[in-house]
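Page 37, continued from 36.
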């Protein structure tokens, strides 16, 4: 055989081996053992596609499992107005947005945005306020409170209905690839308690409710250590903690739940949802959400004999155990080459500067199993200026109209399986992950621009990575 042909064959063989080994080397270098476990040893397998969320952490005691089951039943069961034959699930209203927690968080997942006029609420609502106090928070409307309730008990007028239309925003990547964004505009129709003109309003959809106990178990110090209000490190990112009113403690605390980080703990987050979304009273929020001009003392409530709230402390404790104990599914396909390339791009684009991938939980009396656990929420739980495109012009404690809490990304790639849609961001305007990235601006503008300048294959690698979370 010709010496040159032999040499060419040898080079070809070693070249192929080199490519194969370099691919494996890339996996070995970039995969961190255990990174698929987003809440360490308490992570769970996704199990079935539509039931990936809602499973409890391993190792719950028999009593905790019992409480978890009762809380799960409460989450799924529809509440009814009183008086009723049931004594443990009545008290709905008089105004409400949903009859069950699961109506906004179906299968413990994500709500749906309003897509057309006349649609009922499926985890979508409008927040209202007339102004903001940095200590006590948004100032409610005298007529409508702090959110529009689009449903009501028999004989009570609902507050109104929401209409939507969309502005279409056309654009192109630097490589010429076209994209389209859709900006929603909301108006309130059938305003039954006076004009809503002049009110600050902000749309919201319900988030998936996985991993909430782990977030609740974070110390305030662990959140504050990432705060950089004046951008001292000059990286263009200046996250700040929201300081919000803690009702039970009667003091200001660090906010960590909600789109604007406007709730200090899981207990108050759940109580606020009971009260605002379903019109149910608790010991934290004992007052009825009463329609303007109506004396609620003349209406039936769901208080059982000897009690003065509709969700008593025993029921509330069961719900707390359920919500706190919901685990986070493990990531999938973590060793795929494209996924690892996407993870590297995620870090190179500084997405991880806000979507922080490592915290350690602190003391947590409700479920000690959640203490001292390394978690990967891909959030810093801080407020960031996201630019004018996402601004709602509604302040919330220390959050101004363009600031939003960094959304935890765990569970992101399973929303489509669980909820049969991929609508993202605070009002669901983004129809998929790519659109959500393109809506980023403000402090995230540099990262978004870098994403847009990537080759199309690298953009897909990043999305492949995010879909494993």
């Amino acid at each position: 055989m010709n010496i040159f042909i032999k040499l060419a064959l040898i080079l070809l063989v070693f070249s192929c081996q080199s490519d194969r080994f370099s691919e494996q080397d890339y996996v070995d270098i970039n995969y961190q053992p255990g990174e698929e476990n987003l809440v360490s040893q308490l992570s769970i397998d996704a199990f079935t596609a539509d039931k990936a969320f809602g499973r409890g952490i391993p190792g719950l005691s028999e009593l905790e499992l019992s409480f978890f089951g009762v809380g799960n039943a409460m989450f799924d069961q529809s509440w009814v107005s009183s008086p009723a034959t049931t004594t443990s699930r009545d008290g709905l209203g008089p105004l409400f947005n949903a009859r069950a927690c699961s109506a906004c968080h179906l299968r413990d997942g994500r709500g749906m945005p309003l897509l057309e006029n006349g649609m009922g609420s499926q985890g979508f609502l409008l927040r209202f306020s007339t102004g903001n106090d940095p200590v006590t928070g948004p100032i409610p409307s005298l007529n409508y409170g702090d959110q529009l309730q689009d449903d009501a008990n028999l004989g009570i007028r609902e507050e109104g209905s929401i209409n939507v239309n969309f502005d279409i925003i056309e654009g192109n990547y630097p490589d010429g690839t076209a994209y389209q964004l859709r900006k929603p505009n909301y108006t309130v129709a059938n305003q039954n308690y006076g004009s809503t003109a002049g009110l600050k309003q902000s749309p919201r959809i319900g988030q998936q409710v996985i991993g909430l106990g782990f977030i609740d178990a974070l110390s305030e110090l662990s959140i504050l250590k990432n705060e950089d209000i004046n951008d001292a490190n000059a990286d263009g990112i200046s996250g700040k903690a929201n300081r919000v009113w803690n009702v039970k403690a009667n003091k200001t605390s660090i906010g960590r739940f909600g789109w604007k980080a406007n709730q200090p703990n899981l207990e108050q987050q759940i109580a606020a949802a009971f009260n605002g979304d379903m019109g149910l009273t608790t010991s934290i929020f004992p007052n009825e959400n009463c329609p303007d001009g109506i004396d609620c003392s003349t209406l039936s409530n769901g208080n059982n004999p000897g009690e003065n709230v509709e969700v008593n402390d025993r029921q509330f404790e069961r719900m707390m155990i359920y919500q706190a104990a919901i685990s986070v599914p493990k990531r999938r396909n973590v060793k795929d080459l494209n996924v690892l390339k996407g993870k590297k791009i995620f870090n190179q684009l500084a997405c991880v500067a806000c979507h922080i991938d490592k915290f350690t939980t602190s003391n947590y009396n409700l479920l000690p199993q959640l203490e001292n656990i390394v978690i990967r929420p891909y959030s810093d739980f801080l407020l960031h200026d996201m630019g004018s495109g996402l601004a709602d012009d509604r302040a919330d404690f220390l959050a101004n109209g363009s600031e939003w809490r960094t959304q935890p990304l765990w569970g992101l790639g399973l929303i489509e399986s669980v909820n049969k849609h991929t609508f993202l961001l605070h009002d669901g305007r983004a129809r998929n992950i790519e659109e959500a990235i393109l809506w980023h601006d403000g402090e995230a503008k540099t990262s978004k621009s870098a994403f847009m300048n990537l080759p199309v294959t690298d953009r897909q690698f990043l999305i492949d990575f995010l879909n494993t979370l």
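Residues 339 and 465 are 4 Å apart (CA to CA). Flag for discussion at group meeting. The chain has one domain: 23-466.
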